[in-house]
């Protein structure tokens, strides 16, 4: 226990840890600032007001053009019809804007769903309809249907409120950044006890099993502390400036049926437990893997390079190399983005439905067991020789 505490103190006092923390927090606060700035122009109220202004401008221009046409001509009739249609859209947008300002969410979302369905019908009526556009409109219908059923304010895809910002940060930005940061910190920590490729901790009294346990525990607690601190500070700052958010706000997930993925929305809190479970296993796997590579290589920079290739490198290969994608469910590096795995969005993105929470737990657990066994193997062999 004393060695574990000593190692944790070294990690806390390390300049590298402080630099990595500062960079991660700077990134988080920068993303929060950009999200807050962009979200002001992406709210439903702003979008509706812009649509209303465009419709009014269009009506004004068409009314000017009427004087150019003969009242008995087709152009005059078509323009009159367009004016009437646009005025109808103006009334709808005015009504939607009123409902949003009065926070009558159910009625407002009912209007919004009707508008999207109308646009979807127009898109489907075209000869060459865009499948991606149709899929996007279907997701919007599902989103606003959920919000209609569970009335609450709409938040943009670039949220700034505490809870939603935390989910956004951990889905898009932190997975790779945190993996890079963790590998740098652990590589220094795990190789610091080697001098000319000799492990100084082997001179300490006590069993090798206890020594190994303390090393992995120190690595794990270091990663866990850094991860929690970054998320906690980001959450507090976002909540203080922009509000807490909602645990019931919808989160996009995918369900698989018959080899096809289907989108759905569930409350955000339902993803919390599986994502945290995977995150803890991932931290433990990274802690044990770095210790194993350090024990084999016994040099800081080669250890850093190899662990980076086995984690971040393989994770990026999942997206671009088809043979790797097919077996990605058995690669621990696939599960760096715990939220995307838990929501099945990663499986949908790479078209491998086997990448899910269950496979993640199995793969990471088996990898941890194998890694720990390999770490203990030299000690077990030494015991047999002494016996």
UniProtKB/TrEMBL annotation:
Keywords: Membrane, Transmembrane, Transmembrane helix. The chain crosses the membrane at residues 172-190, 216-242, 262-284, 304-322, 357-377. It comes from Lactobacillus nasalidis. This is ABC transporter permease.
């Amino acid at each position: 226990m004393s060695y574990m505490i000593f190692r944790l103190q070294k990690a806390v006092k390390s300049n590298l840890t402080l630099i990595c923390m500062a960079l991660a927090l700077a990134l988080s606060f920068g993303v929060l600032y950009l999200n807050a700035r962009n979200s002001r122009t992406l709210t439903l109220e702003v979008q509706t007001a812009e649509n209303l202004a465009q419709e009014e401008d269009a009506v004004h221009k068409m009314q000017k053009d009427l004087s150019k046409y003969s009242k008995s001509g087709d152009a005059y009739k078509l323009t009159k019809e367009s004016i009437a249609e646009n005025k109808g859209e103006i009334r709808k947008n005015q009504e939607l804007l009123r409902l949003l300002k009065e926070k009558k969410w159910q009625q407002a979302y009912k209007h919004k769903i009707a508008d999207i369905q109308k646009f979807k019908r127009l898109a489907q009526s075209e000869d060459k309809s865009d499948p991606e556009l149709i899929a996007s409109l279907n997701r919007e219908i599902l989103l606003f249907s959920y919000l209609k059923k569970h009335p609450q304010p709409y938040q943009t895809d670039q949220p700034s409120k505490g809870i939603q910002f935390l989910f956004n940060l951990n889905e898009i930005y932190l997975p790779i950044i945190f993996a890079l940061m963790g590998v740098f910190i652990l590589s220094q920590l795990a190789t610091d006890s080697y001098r000319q490729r000799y492990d100084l901790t082997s001179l300490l009294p006590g069993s090798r099993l206890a020594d190994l346990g303390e090393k992995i525990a120190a690595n794990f607690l270091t990663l866990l502390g850094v991860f929690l601190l970054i998320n906690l500070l980001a959450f507090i700052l976002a909540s203080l400036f922009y509000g807490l958010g909602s645990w019931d706000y919808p989160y996009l997930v995918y369900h698989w049926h018959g080899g096809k993925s289907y989108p759905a929305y569930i409350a955000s809190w339902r993803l919390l437990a599986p994502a945290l479970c995977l995150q803890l296993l991932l931290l433990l796997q990274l802690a044990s893997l770095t210790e194993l590579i350090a024990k084999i290589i016994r040099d800081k920079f080669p250890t850093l390079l190899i662990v980076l290739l086995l984690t971040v490198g393989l994770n990026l290969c999942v997206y671009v190399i088809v043979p790797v994608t097919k077996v990605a469910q058995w690669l621990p590096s696939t599960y760096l983005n715990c939220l995307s795995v838990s929501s099945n969005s990663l499986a949908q993105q790479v078209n491998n439905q086997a990448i899910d929470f269950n496979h993640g737990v199995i793969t990471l657990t088996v990898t941890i067991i194998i890694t720990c066994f390999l770490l203990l193997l030299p000690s077990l062999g030494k015991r047999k020789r002494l016996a």
